[in-house]
Amino acid sequence: MKKDFYKILEVPKSASEADIKKAYRRLAMKYHPDRNPGDAEAEGRFKEAKEAYEILTDPAKRSVYDQYGHAGLEGAAGARGWAGPNPADAFGDIFGDVFGDIFGAARRGGRSQVFRGADLRYELELDLREAVFGHTVQIEVPKLTECETCHGTGAAKGSEPSTCDACGGSGQVRISQGFFQLQQTCSKCRGAGTIVRNPCDTCFGQGRVRRTRTLSVKVPAGVDTGDRIRLSGEGEAGRNGGPPGDLYVEVHVREHPIFERDGEHLSCEVPISFAIAALGGSVEVPTLDGNVVLKIPAETQSGRVFRLRGKGVKPVRSNAQGDLFCRVVVETPVHLSAQQRELVRKLEESLKENDSRHSPREKGFLEGVRRFFGV
Fold it and tell me: What is the pTM of this model?
């Protein structure tokens, strides 16, 4: 039994699209195969999250799922805005091997079948800077394309496909089954309505060949993991004159060595010395568009967060600029000389003369421990 999509993304049923996207982004970063090589469980969680995200961010599919659950998505029930399979399609799926497509020819008015090309998916990895500021990238996509020699007909140069003598060019044949007269796809021409008697030497009569195409993808500024870029008509070529499919470029932003992204906001850790933490001072903080000076007040404790407004990300679907949150971490000195160690000891002795004044958090912690153990 399939898991509940809302439970997979760990969001309530009332979650907004933004909440769903945020939850998916968090799970995608956690379970992405690149971050968990060889971990089958993580890969499974990633695929579950991806499927849940694709359903719940589509208003029509989400409406069907909310009303009918997984059965609705599989065609057991229909809903406005979602074109689920009708009884004729279901019957054709079940008995297609015996009777073929029973109702297909009636819907097509007896014409030969036209097949749209398959949609393709390409996973694009970007650095954080490329995702934030936008980027144009060249990608190589292997796909079935129209044969340039025969222009998709499948016939050798100087010849043309001939009309199928079994179906008369309709792509369908009638079969009598008792009181029923059924139509099914012609087995001789496979619904094309024509037969290639002199096949093309390049595509061997298929009308399509597999080639790798180089495409230029313009990535808009502000994209994030889980976003998709649709390239219309860049999927696989159709058959029998059908239109090509589309190419969906799915974005995955690599982990950054300094910054972590949460929607429009960025966060990072800023190490500061003990002296600056105690006496105050200034430190340089990196941002995506250059360094800025962050003023540290005296007596700053490790873990304090400073907010730099407007130094985050402007999402692709919003004009609001995010912020950068800097969490300062007091760095303990290492590799001290004998003289430096002696100075630190003297400072410690001086501070112990009035512990409650110099270390209020330590005093509070010790009192809490005493109360816990009843001392």
Answer: 0.58
